[in-house]
Amino acid sequence: EQWGEYFKEYCPRLLKEVEVITYNGIPKVLKANKEYTCVIFDESDRLPANTFAIGSTIKTKYRLGLSASPYREDGRTEYIFALTGKPIGLNWQGLMNTLGKKHHEINVHITANQKEKIGIVDKVIDFNKKTMIFCDSIEFGKQIAKKYKVSHIHGKVKKRLQILKDEQVVVVSRVGDYGISIKDLQHIIEVDFLLDRKSVV
After folding, report:
1. Is 57 exposed, middle or buried (0-12, 13-18, 19+ CB in 10 A)?
2. Residues 50-85: pLDDT tens digits?
3. Residue 66, beta-bridge partner list
4. What are the tens digits of pLDDT across the range 175-197?
């Protein structure tokens, strides 16, 4: 969705020449047997997965991999580079130094249950800052959104990007943890995620 917006804003003349698809759309592209001048794999760390690796067989003259986290825990990190070339954004420390940027403060709170998590959110939430509250659990996300009277963005919600732009504080499910860029974002609170359901950041 965001890639489509970027093309409309920055290079509308290319709209007829560009196709934006998700990784789940790769089988349709392969079935159509199309050939491209360039394929850009955003979040290229996903490409080596069993379900998506077939995307590397798309016929193209050039390929480019983009990733803010070009690493995999399954031992397939090198496949990212083999399938797309060296990802842009590989050396974040070097980029931070070049741009003169400082690292953000990160606070980790270990909690025993959801009630304690909400207690910490109460302490750290700031409605004057552009904030995303990440919550992998849809049900828990609904509870949080209801408590703070904010929108809850998940897979069934339409116009997700518009809500992210318009609202100061939102609760976001896993649909917001990959492939989006929010330039005015100031604060991230992670209350529930896939690997460890005991943390708040």
Report:
1. exposed
2. 999 999 999 999 999 888 778 888 999 999 999 988
3. 42, 88
4. 877 767 888 889 999 998 765 44
- C-alpha span between 151 and 145 (Å, rounded): 6
Interval 123-159: pLDDT, tens? 999 999 999 999 999 999 999 999 999 999 998 988 8
Given a cut of 80, whether residue 198 has pLDDT beyond it is: no
The predicted structure's pLDDT at residue 201: 40
Could you give the CA distance from residue 82 to residue 5 in angstroms, rounded to a whole number? 29
Distance between CA atoms of 148 and 121, rounded to whole angstroms?
10
Location of structure tokens 């955003």: 42
DSSP conformation letters of the chain: -HHHHHHHHH-GGGGGG-----GGGHHHHHHHT-EEEEEEEETGGGTTSTTTGGGGGSEEEEEEEE-S----TTS-HHHHHHHH-SPBT--HHHHHHHHT--PPP---EE-SSHHHHHHHHHHH--TTS-EEEEES-HHHHHHHHHHHT-EEE-TT-SSHHHHHHH-SEEEE-GGGSSS---TT--EEEEEE-SS-TTEE-
Beta strand 59-66 pairing with 109-110:
unpaired
